[in-house]
Amino acid sequence: MTSSDQGILSIESSHSVDETMAKIEAILREKNVKLFARIDHSGEAEQAGLHMPPTKLLIFGNPRGGTPLMLAAPTVAIDLPLKLLVAEDAAGKTTISWNDPHYLLVRHNLPEALIANIAVIAAIAEAAAK
């Protein structure tokens, strides 16, 4: 897993973007996590006559996990629901990226006890990457 100074964690996937997306969606269904949106950035670019490598975003969450965070710090709603970005680079490598839960805690001055509500995102990414 790699991290950036901007609070983004990433992991390489062993699968294509579409296969990785399908795996994430299956994990979310299995865990009864609501999928709010699936955004196909590369597909939208293609429709505009532009080309970019496959790049897709899933937005998902569970009110039982997110609501306590938003009650503690309403500004965290700008970073929720949770998101996973699945993108292919120029070399054909697929990467899954997400906001680092610790970064969000600091950014929104959230209590450490609430990190478990969003830390599950790493496990979802890691399971989908295998």
Q: What is the strand content?
A: 25-35%
Mean pLDDT, nearest integer? 96
CATH architecture: 2-Layer Sandwich
CATH class bucket: Alpha Beta
Give the strand order of the largest sheet, numbering strands 1, 2, ... along the chain: 1-2-6-5-4-3
DSSP, total strands: 6
What is the H/E string?
EEHEHEHEEHH
The number of distinct structural domains comes to 1
Regions with little confidence, pLDDT below 50 for 5+ residues: none
Helix content: 40-55%
Keywords for this entry:
41% helix, globular, 5 helices, 130 residues, alpha+beta, DUF302 domain-containing protein, 6-stranded antiparallel beta sheet, DUF302, TATA-Binding Protein, TT1751-like_sf
Describe this entry's structure for a reader.
The chain contains five helices and six strands; from the N terminus they run ββαβαβαββαα. The mean pLDDT is 96. α1 packs across α5 (116-129). The radius of gyration is 15 Å and the shape is globular. The protein has a single domain, classed as TT1751-like domain (TATA-Binding Protein, 2-Layer Sandwich). The protein has 130 residues and is an alpha+beta fold. InterPro entries: DUF302 (IPR005180), TT1751-like_sf (IPR035923).
